Structure prediction request, 486 residues.
Amino acid sequence: MSESPDAAPADVDDPELSGDDQPELKQAITPKLLLLFIVGDILGTGVYALTGKVAGEVGGAGWLPIIVAFAIAMVSALSYVEMVTKYPQAAGAALYVHKAFGVHFLTFMVTFAVLSSGITSASTSAIFLSENVLKAFALEEPLGDAAQPVATGIALAFLALVALINLRGVAESVKANVALTLIELSGLSLVIVVGFIALGRGEADLSRVILFETQDDKSLFMAVIGATALAFFSMVGFEDSVNMAEETVDPVKNFPRALIGGLSITGVIYVLISVLAVAVVPIGQLTESTTPLLEVVKVGAPGIPIDTIFAFISIFAVANTVLINMMMASRLLYGMAKQGVLPGFLQGVLRGRRTPWAGIVFSTALAFALVLTVRYVLPEETISALGGTTALLLLAVFGLVNVSVLVLRKDTVDVRHFRTPTVLPVIGAITAFALITPIAQPLQNYVIAGGLLGIGLLLYIITWLYNRAVRARRTRFRHPDDLGKP
Prediction:
């Protein structure tokens, strides 16, 4: 006899559903690895690709939206620190929202939004990487009209390579992250050094740094709001680390310092880069370039053949963003399948490597589809569109996390944990929700985000119908604290 839809599920402990026969992930992330993980995830495509786009919104004062975006990100990061030390499970935002509101469908949509942001971020990085490959080998002019299809092919090939690295295991992936982060930092250090050399030679114009120029006769306020929403893409990444909580050594002790420290390090670097870039390179030239930091190196160090070297550094730098985001996406897919809110085939874990192979394959397929679609629909705005969509999705999630912090203040736990000042989650929620309004976001971002969330909704409906018709059970998160942990 089938149970009532409103009854508690009778198969909570069913090994097939709970994944109890699946192997566990390793606790392989040490404090130093965690800090490098966070720094490496935040640094990357945002600063390498969007410095010129941000300057195009507000002129030489591109540092202002960077600072505003940093402040908003830090407020939300402090909320994440409170949550991850209070509930040190792998689920991240999904767990916090679920504990606060207990609405299973909302939990699902938050989880899929985080997952989708990882895929849009990885796709942005893969496309930017492919453009740097063409520049490094000076292939744009010889290829002519074939340059875009070749770049698209390179982006897809790299996404496939990242999938193979992730299949090897989390320890291998995080160690690769360390190497890529160091390369990433060397590239940004090179830009900073070149910028200061140009300043010392009197070849840079700091007066441009206070020059405000807006597009389409926008007011300064509206221009800064729009640029901040775009610049926020440069600050995201710290939220990925909480999804690795159960693979981290002593997360309650290590997360606060790593998360706050990592975001602070990147914030200082970004402000320096944004100031030096507009001082060294004319704003128009910086805005029109698809590789703005390469322009800084070319202009700031003419006659020194380091532009090709920098192009290769950029390739490795953005590769890091792809690696980390695809790691996160695959684990969330696994977690939702394990909970019974996505099709069961996504529970697949390699027994030898203990990696979620089905989630890796499916997330890579979604990234392939996104790259091909956006690349040919918005060829001139691909990077800014995907970067803006990433920011849109995460701002919505951050808003809900900040609200969850306030709601969960009534929930006491038996462990000491970080507590952020109450006013900060309030500010974080208001600013995050303000930046996802049409005032700050172009229509294309809503379309891309809606398409990805629509895929998630379709999968949810299919699973819901299957659960009711075949298993006579409700579609709900049984153990949200295990979400993302094979």
Remarks:
- The chain has one domain: 31-481.
- The chain has a mean pLDDT of 83.
